[in-house]
Amino acid sequence: MSADTTAKLPWFRRSYRNFSLEEKYAVLGMILIAPTVMTFCAVIAYPLIAAIYLSFFSIYTPTMEGHWVGFSNYATLLQSGEFWRSLWNNIIWTVGTLTLQILFGILVAMMLHQNMVFRSLARSLVLFPYFLSTVVAVLVWKWLFNDLYGVLNHLFMWAGVIDMPVDWLGKMPNAMLSLIFVGAWKYFPFVVIAVLARLQSIPEELYEAAKIDGAGVFARFFDVTLPQLKDVLVVIILLRTIWDFKEFDLINLMTGGGPIIATQTLSLMVYKEAFALNQMGASSAVAVLMMLVMLVFMALYLRKAKGPSE
Amino acid sequence: MTKKINEKKCGSAFGPISRRSVLKGTGAVGLTAAASSLPFSAALAEEVTLRWWSPQASPAQVAAYKYQIDTFEKAHPGVKVKFEKTSDEGYAPQLAAAFASGKVPNMVTHLPSFACSNYWRNGLLEPMNDVINAVGADKYYDGANDIYEIDKGQYSATGIGNGAANMMWLRKDLMEKAGIEKAPVTWDELRSACQKMQGGGVYGAPLPYAKNSMTTLTIIGFIHLAGGHVFNQNLDVDLVTDEAVNALEFYRSMRELCPPGATNYSWGQSLTAFVSGGTATGIYTGRVLINVNKQNPKIADHVTCETYPRISADVSPWTFNAFPSVFIPKAAQNMAETKKLAAWLFNADGYIKQMHGAPGHLLPVLKTIAEDPRYQDNDIIRKYPTEVEKMSRNAAAGKNLGWETTKHKANDKAGAVVNSGVLAELVQRVVLNDEKPREVLKDTAMKIEAIMKG
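The joint structure predicted for all components is written out below.
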């Protein structure tokens, strides 16, 4: 076979030594990228495809045995009040805790941006809730909320605000409000870190110019600080929305989704279907629907991350 | 069509190979290569590690387990035993994940009998006949293992102890102060006693209203104490009854006599509420005795127990006994050593230490141990002989959802019903949402029927 004939053959029918330099680079490129692609397939693509695949079966979790049911899991879910209630709870929790996180976060970041005594220490301490293990944080809060020996009830009773201990976690709307508050306490330091970093890079001249124009504290905040924070806040909101939407451990440990299903979010429903009811197929269907909701936020984030140049 | 999802066969030039075999093969090659590079590979290969799970792990119990593990390891060189704690609320998801992944513990102790029957029915457990024979079938109390005999002649588990989980605990000092002369026998008497004793930071009772297994198991008890049942003798759901409505109505009426946080109470919180002096009555096993003596000794001389009150004196008492078990997953590695370990738990010295880890909480299933003077030689057992005797007597006659009465068939779906939480939700809907009991019962019955069919 002549060299010309060999060169016309498709690449996979030729030996490596007959490859052109360009083709050899291409092969090298594929070899170099292979570990990344394989890792991606193992940790992202496989679980995703497996979840979608399992959602079309009725499967008993401990044995992983089951049978094909097609779209039946999805039909049952979409007709069940529990799914919609869990989705609604998810939205309330995400919006509620995120709003508080942003408000606390900006407020504390602004405070820490001022010249104050022990500023470095304060900046370190404010990160404490974020670094604390969720299990430990929940244990502390459950102790604070306890009806018989909790500090909160004792404090409020001592101050005369209440006559009898309040049931913080077993009644609605207390349970959801408590969750939202603890979630905000746990995660607002993330907002502080990001906002503080941006605050430090806002040119001082902008504030000086605003002062010369007669702008007060509030005007300077709304006309200078907030517009400068806009970009970082959009990214924070999108990221925290994605993370808060799939929050599991904090909610499961605080209320377990109760009372009844009043604080049950989709993550808890996935867990309940898979491991309490042993219905892995139905659980996968909830997970897939949850993923579809999160894809919207993900698309927005990716669009934002691409930036204005594109 | 039923098929094993995680073992789909695929063809190859060497015949059909399952995905699991390919993974095993790859893993084996890797492990062999790694092991051959180690200087002491032969010694490592001979060492066997057995994993032991239990939800009961108070410090005194863990100390007893450690003694049993140490003596076992000494008697069986090359075998190591690793104890891992699970929980009453957490064991079901943990075991489901373990069974699904094939990474099962070697031995699981102290889970209720209805959990074993569920796993047995799905072919996940090893028969315990060898272990029972090794312990000595004649050493057990008569019929002690009947509840685990799901299939004729095959034991899904063996009992490790008995427990009377819904004993009513009372404070004699508070009763005297409130002018109550005798322990309540009926619900009306209980409510009246709680009303009289409530006040000054002390609540009447620590009944659970949470979304957990304690609420589920407690309401099952109350339905029986009203003269009803969840299933009829043929295991058809029979929940929409006047008895169940009465039970729910009474349970709702007790809410104002329980601490506000009872909507989140599980076993631990309910126990602590009584032991700390936060409630005048309690509902728990004999663990109350050791906890009161250790944590609140000033009330230790005033506590006593009775069977939980019922709707009227005409209805028989119903004691909830979880029949704590020992079982071995079929997929466990090193089966011979595992069975030896299971049998080792019943050696007199170790078993007595285990019972003394929580005296009165767990009562012996071996008559040889109950009669052993070393078992009787315990401060708590000596101090509360009447209470321990009452608990032993009632636990022996105890029942649970897996076996509601002696006339009922064994219910191998009881574990699934308990773990689903539908009965706890029933309580919460009636008590917290103020929904009509009969309507909620109809809804709950349908959910249980679906579980039974599933």
